[in-house]
Each structure stands twice: as structure tokens, then as C-alpha cells.
Amino acid sequence: MKKVLVAGANGQIGRHVVRLLQESEHFEAKAMIRDKTQAPYFEEMGAGTAVVDLEDEIDVLAGVMDDVDAVVFTAGSGPNTGKDKTIMIDLDGAVKMMEASKQKGVSRFALISSFDTRRGHWGSEAFRPYAACKFYADEWLRNSGLEYTIIHPGKLNNEEGTGKVNAAADVPRDEIPREDVAKVIVETLNHDSLINKEFQVTKGDTSVVEALDSIE
Amino acid sequence: MKKVLVAGANGQIGRHVVRLLQESEHFEAKAMIRDKTQAPYFEEMGAGTAVVDLEDEIDVLAGVMDDVDAVVFTAGSGPNTGKDKTIMIDLDGAVKMMEASKQKGVSRFALISSFDTRRGHWGSEAFRPYAACKFYADEWLRNSGLEYTIIHPGKLNNEEGTGKVNAAADVPRDEIPREDVAKVIVETLNHDSLINKEFQVTKGDTSVVEALDSIE
């Protein structure tokens, strides 16, 4: 069993990720949470927990990675929080997790980014600072030497997952249930073919496994 | 005469920089300004001007670099603006200027950073997002392949410059007049020994030239 540290475990995607990892054959989850009162929720699923804050120093973050085989970063302040948190969590929190992973030799790293972080595709003026922070986190990961996968999901909704998606380097902009993003994350960790790759993903007609198999 | 593009020319440091470049033997200034009504101020000094916005695309920024030999980035939203501008100007504006410089083969690049951008030295919680953006801009420049110098000034004040400073990799935290920062910037461009180096600088007892000569 490979142990996967989930940063942002208590988030809306993160809770699905932890549950799916616990249900999987190959993985077990270690939920990274900021508040120890969140722990029982994950312990009831049989998941491990680690109480640590993404605003802590790199050494503190590395301190919960000793028994870890892969890291999923699905934390995010979201586009509607103060931009101070966008900087400190979406950009710097992600980068510190990458540096902590390198420090501990945890090579596999999956990052949940925004749908399109390429320059010129950052959207409205209000959205742009958020997209910029995601862009810099993505760039750091590409240059980190880690075995990375960057997942660019479409607009998130809370509909029930269908297990079917559309995934490729470029797909038309569309929505995707958070539960399906979580399925994509877990399957990504099962796909060595996705190491040092990135892709966009929305709702679609192809099973997650098949969709990820087809990414070049 | 080498032509120096000054990003942030209309700022409090930038105005000194343009004037000192115009007074120097080796340089002439091209003031990068956002608003064409700012142009006469610089034209009266005999400086060139380029009306362009740091939120423009890289190609637009590169478009004003054809006749340029070096870039000084002294633009900054300051620590007290909205963090959206910190991201889009202090981080992304600086990075776009670096990318534009690379695109045009303008290799010499001087960046005015914050006093101490090293991890663990980012100061109070309120200051940290600003310091983080400066950290990422610094890091981008270090890895850019440009002939960079990163200048880390102490707390800025508007006292008259003395022409005397304290400059080294590490100096005690202190204030420095903006006019003296401007002198340091201009002298930095005269110092090939400072290529791919960075230093902190505050007010002090050593002439700017001598202080920069002594940096290892």
C-alpha cells in the first residue's frame, strides 16, 4: 500500500480524495489538516492524519512526510478569498510542499491547478491575480525535478460524480463535479504514464481510467 | 552611451534614477511610464519615454526594448496596496519584464527587491504576502539566465541622499534615502563585478562606488 499525503484534505475535493484513496486497493490516505478537531472525520474512514498548517515552514511540512509515498496538493483558498491567502496558500503553500517533498525524497507529486494557467488565458481582471499564483505554482513544480502531474479541472460543481470525463492537453471549457476531480486524482497516482505531464479535465463521456490512458 | 529602460520611472525611486542616468557620463534613460501625461517631466530632462503598462503582455513590454541596453525594475505597488496589485506588478510585472528582456537579448537586468526576501525573514504576517511576491520575482531572475543584480534596500525614506551607504550580502537592518538607492542602482550598472550578485544596502559611511567595489 502506498501512503498518499493529501494537503487540503478537509476541502471539498480533498474529502472525496481521502475517501477514494481509502476505498482503493493500492493506496491509503494521510489527511493533512490544520485543525485537530477535523481528525475524527478522517480517522473514522481509517485514514491517517497530520495536523499541520500550510503557512508553517518547509521543515514542519517535511516532518509529516516520513512515511509518505506521494503528495496530492488540493488545498486552495479559492478565487474569492483575500489575495494575501492566495499568495500564502495557493502559491507559497504549494511551493513549500514541493520543497518538503524534495527534502524527504517523496518524488510523486500531483497538483490541482486552475483550468487554464497559460499566459493570455488568465481570464477577467478580477480572476487574474489568482490565475497568476496558480501559474507560478505550476511553473515551480515543472522545474522541481519531482515526478509531477498537474491537473487542470474545469469549473467545479457539487453534482454527484459520473466517473466519466473529458481529459487531454486542451479540452473545451466545461464544468466537472468535484467528486470526479477526486477520481481523476486517485487514478493519476495509478498512472506512471502521467509523470511529468499535465492535462485539462471536464465532465465527459469517457471513463476516468480510459481517459487518463489516452493522454499523450 | 548605454540606454537604460527604467520600469517604474514615475515612482519615488524611479524619478531619481532617471535624473541620475541623464546626469551620468555612460548612460541615458528611457522612462517607462503608464500615462503619457507623465512624459513631459522626463522629456524636460532629455530622457526618452515609453508609454506601456506593466499589466500588458510580454510582447508589448518587449516592444519598447529595441534600443535598450539594460533594464532597471524599480516599479512596485508597495506593501500597502491591494495584494492583487502586488501579484500583478511586483511579481508578474517583474517577471514579464525579465521575459521581455530575454526575448530582446537585453541581458543586463537590475531588480529592486525588498530588504530581506529569504525564507524565514519575511517579517510580520501582514508583510509576508508582499515579501513572498518579491521572493518569487527574485527567484525567477536568479534562474533567468540574465546578467542580473538584485538590490535589497533597507527601509526607504525621503531624506536627501548622502552618497554614503553600507552594502554587503548581509548588513544590519536600517533606513536608506530613496535618492541613495537610486545612486546605488546607477552605479550597479557601472559594475560588471555585480553581475549575478545581490546585496543589501542601507545608509552608511562608505561612498557608493567604494561600497559596491567591495561586494564579493
Walk me through the structure.
2 copies of one chain form a homodimer. The first copy, chain A, has 216 residues and is α/β, with parallel strands linked by helices. Chain A has one domain (2-213): Rossmann fold (3-Layer(aba) Sandwich). Chain A has helices at 12-23, 39-43, 58-62, 83-104, 128-142, 178-189, 208-213, and strands at residues 2-7, 27-33, 48-51, 70-73, 108-112, 147-153, 155-157, 164-168, 175-177, 197-203, 206-207. In chain A, the strands form 2 sheets. Chain A has a 9-stranded mixed sheet, sandwiched between helices. Chain A starts with a strand and ends with a helix. The mean pLDDT of chain A is 96. Chains A and B meet through helix 4 and helix 5 of A and helix 4 and helix 5 of B.
Mean pLDDT score of chain A, rounded? 96
Series of secondary-structure elements of chain A, N-terminal to C-terminal: EHEHEHEHEHEEEEHEEH
| Oligomerization | homodimer
- Rg of chain A (CA only): 16 Å
What is the name of the CATH class of chain A? Alpha Beta
Chain pair forming the biggest interface: A-B, 18 and 18 residues
Biggest pleated sheet of chain A: 9 strands, mixed
Helicity of chain A, as a percent range: 25-40%
Which second-level CATH architecture of chain A applies? 3-Layer(aba) Sandwich
Tally of helical segments of chain A:
7
Tell me the fraction of residues in β-strands of chain A, as a range: 15-25%
Spans of chain A of at least 5 consecutive residues whose pLDDT stays below 50 are none
Strand order of the largest sheet of chain A: 3-2-1-4-5-6-10-8-11
Shape of chain A: globular
CATH topology description of chain A: Rossmann fold
- State the end-to-end distance of chain A: 27 Å
Number of domains of chain A: 1
| Quantity of strands of chain A, as a count | 11
Helix-strand category of chain A: alpha/beta
